[in-house]
Amino acid sequence: MKDMMMKLQKYIEDILGYVMVIIPIPKQELGKLPMYVNEIYKLYLVTLGDIHFVLIEYKDADAFSISQLEKHRELIHINLNQKVALLAEDISAIYRKRLIEKGINFIVPDKQLFLPDFLIDLREGNQNAGRKKKTEKLLPSAQFILLYYLLHKPTEYIENDSFTQLALRFGYTKMAITKAVDNLAYNGLCTVEGTKEKYIRFISERSELWNSALPLFVNPVFKKVYVDDKPDGLFLFRSNESALNEYSDMNPSRQLYYAIERSKFYDLQKEGQLKNPNEHEGAVCLELWKYNPEMLANGITKADNVDPLSLYLSLRDNRDERVEDALEMIITKYIW
Question: What does pTM read for this prediction?
């Protein structure tokens, strides 16, 4: 433990220039927490410049669980009235990404310092120092193009298609394609080549591109509507937990979920083909998507499910530990 703390203090002093003061939490303060929290973590009080927080470290690194960590972090925050940060000797790149997505403070000495509660994010190599950070979310059309590229790159090279050809391929207007690509370029994900005919050029490899876009992605699901039955004669791809069994070892849920493009849903609604549509319950849940789920899934799914990356984005805020494990499998298989 002493070596770990010395390593941590040196790391903080090297990158921030501050001396980190670390002391064990007094017993009377530990008494405010459930016993199981003290059994799982070592807890310390930390002073770093003008900020103070509780530093927690797993006693058994193999017990690491993001869903559990979220609950315990909130419990410690409420009972001790302090922000919480996780200390770990090492965390896999995949789990670091998940911690970042969920805004969980953590420190991996010599690799990454992520303290969003205190507006600090310093990563190994500090590669983005001084670079203006883009914060504009992706347009649904831009997200669609990027996901199509990530999913279909091995067999289809959309970088060879002009904006005009992309519009024909994806069913958008040329103006919509131009706006989508501008959105991607603004966020540093691609560049544009050509004059009379323009072409998109993505600037990174798949995993790096995905990680760069991760904070910018939007949930593809616009809203959910429950109905008594799936409309007759309508083919739809399964979504949500109904689709996870193809891409992970999680069994499908009892609730049936299907993805449907918004415009198609509203057409069905106008034609009166939806049985008892409501926002609360029904044998079938229709997820209204912001872009065409079928075009992304074609050639990817073997079991009539939505594509795995959109599925991930639709469920990444789900706090069910089984779902979180399934999502990790998706990223491992399709990104890493």
Answer: 0.63
